[in-house]
Structure formats: structure tokens, C-alpha cells
Amino acid sequence: MDLARLEDALIGQPRFRARQVWAWAARGARGYAEMTDLPAGLRERLAAEVPFSSLTLEREDRSRDGTLKALLRTHEGRPVEAVLMRYRDERRSVCVSSQSGCPLTCSFCATGQMRFGRNLTASEILDQVLHFRRRGAVDHCVFMGMGEPMLNLQAVLGACARLPEVGVTHRRTTISTVGWLPGIRRLSESELPVRLALSLHAPDDALRSQLMAVNERYPLAGVLDACRAYHARRRRRVFIEYVMLAGVNDRYEQALALARLLDRRAFKVNLIPFNPTDTAFTGSGPQAIAAFASALRRQGIPTTVRLARGRDIDAACGQLAARAPAGAGAAGVPAGPAGAG
Ligand code: SAH
Known about the structure:
Elements: H1 3-9, H2 17-26, H3 40-49, E1 56-62, E2 68-73, E3 79-86, E4 92-95, E5 99-100, E6 118-119, H4 122-133, E7 140-143, H5 153-166, E8 173-177, H6 181-189, E9 195-199, H7 205-211, H8 214-217, H9 220-234, E10 238-244, H10 252-261, E11 267-273, H11 286-298, E12 303-305
Parallel strand pairs: 4-7, 7-8, 8-9, 9-10, 10-11, 11-12
Antiparallel strand pairs: 1-2, 2-3, 3-4, 5-6
Helix pairs in contact: 4-5, 6-9, 10-11
This protein binds S-adenosyl-L-homocysteine.
The site of S-adenosyl-L-homocysteine has 17 residues, from strand 8 and strand 10.
């Protein structure tokens, strides 16, 4: 819910009211009617004056692996996608968007191909989490949906600050960035002990600039220094995300070059199988990914391979573009510039 609007609506009420309402929402309440410790008249007035969510649900898709993707809309109709991943070990992780669309243009990512809308507010970020919280407990949150969190850091941190009340501790909250240097520095200085993930994707500046234009502005050396500083201050390893693109960044020498860039105490690599987007890239096969992972491990770099989730509903990393999954009849959903499917 729009927490600023809630505060306004509660002017003249005892000061604890806003907290009380938020506490219900954070525990998964479905509406004001459930807030039984609020006077009935107040519940009715709030229901009339403050929409329970700042986002409306347009559609929801369920993947064969149980992943849920919600397409939500801001009050003025901007698309926002959020994903709930459920794992066999009971972990329930929400992947949230920090912006509608993304102003950056990473060449392999579907979000980068759609039009940028705007930054989301802290309430709009929280409402993505609450959407899934109403279905059951959630315990992890990753800022890996649409948008670049560091370009909207104040709202992102505002949302992070309230996540523990929803059930997600700071240590289980991860902010992923393309390497927006000023943002990494600001995050290091913030008080919240959230995790940092860096989308690296290439072990040298020439290739990285081809894949991610942002590298021209903030080249590798400075970005990695900022990540080391974050680690030095926080004592928490930085995740390096590396999407595996066949014939582009998956060669043995590139694994060695990547290992040379990273010190094993400060970084941990997560290899991401490429999820199909309407771009010129193909993903490395499972064998190539396994070989790359073992080359890194032999150099002493802790390495994991990310499970691909929700691919059949375009809910996997880099596929969020607010369009319908292939063949799913997308009534009312405008196709992104790349077309549906
Ligand atoms: N803008 C931030 C947050 C988005 S996180 C960032 O880039 O870090 C989404 C992650 O998925 C990023 O690591 C991104 O590079 C990666 N990604 C983008 N397109 C992908 C694709 N098609 N397949 C797999 N991963 C992809």
C-alpha cells in the first residue's frame, strides 16, 4: 500500500495506527477488513481512501516448476513484473523489480529491449513482495527483476528496511547491479547489511562493453575495487553473476581470466544459464557450463550454477519484459517491442 498516503489518511489518529496497519499488511492480510484491532469505522474509511495495494494484478502465470510470475500495473498503467520462486528445501524467494522497464541496454536482456517507464516507489516495491506474501511465507528477496536498483537506490533501501517485518531478513536480501559505481559506494555506506551481487558477464573491458554499454562509463577495475571495498567493510562475499553465452564468454581462457580478476575471499561466482530472449545470443550448453565452473573452482573460486526457473513463462533472469509467455493468449497485454514469445 502507498505508505505516504496511509500516513496522510491517518492524520488525527493515534500515532501507532500506521504501524498497526502496516504490521497486518506485512503479515499477509488481504484487506483492511481483517485488521480487527482497528475501529470498524476507520477500516471502512481506509478501504475507501487508500487502495490496499499500490499495484493492481493484471495476470499471473505458473511455470511447470512451480514458479509464479505476476504482471502488475502501477496506478497509471506502467507494467511491473515480480516472480516467486519456490524451492524444494522450502525456501521461498521473491524476485522484485525496482523500475518499470530499464534505462540500460544490456544486449542479451529482454528488459533492456523494452521502453523505460520510471522508478518505482518503495511502496510499489514492497507491494510486489506483499502480493506473494498473501499466499504464504516468503524468506528471501532478490532485486533481480526489471530495472537497475542502483538507479533507484533510495526507494530500494526504503523497501529493504521494511522487509524483515514481511519475513525477509537483510542477510537474505540481495541487490543486483550492472556495476553502477556510485550506487555500490552508497550501498557500502548504508547501514543495512544486505547482500550485493554484480552482473559481470565478461572478464575483460572490451567484451564487457560490447555486452553491457554501462561498462564504457564504469569499467571493470573501478567496479571491482568498489566491490572489494564493500566486502572489506561488510565481511560479506559479493556474488558475481555471469550469464553463459555460447562462443562469447564461455571459453577456458576466459574462465582463467575471470579467476585472475577475483579474489576468492571476497567473491563467489554464480553462473547463469542463458535464458532465451529475442536477441542474437545462444546459451552455452550444460557441458560447457560445467567445464567453466570446474575451471573456476580449480583456481579456488567458489562457484555455483544457477537453477533456471520459470523459463516456460518467461519469468527467468533477463526475460522480464511485460509480455505474455508464448502461446498463452495475452488479452490486454501490449507486446513488448520484441513481440510476444
Ligand atoms: N539490473 C540489475 C538487476 C537485474 S538482475 C542487474 O543487471 O544486475 C537480472 C540478472 O539476469 C542480471 O545478472 C542480468 O544480467 C541477467 N540476465 C539478463 N538477461 C539474461 C538472460 N537472457 N539469461 C540469463 N540471465 C540474464
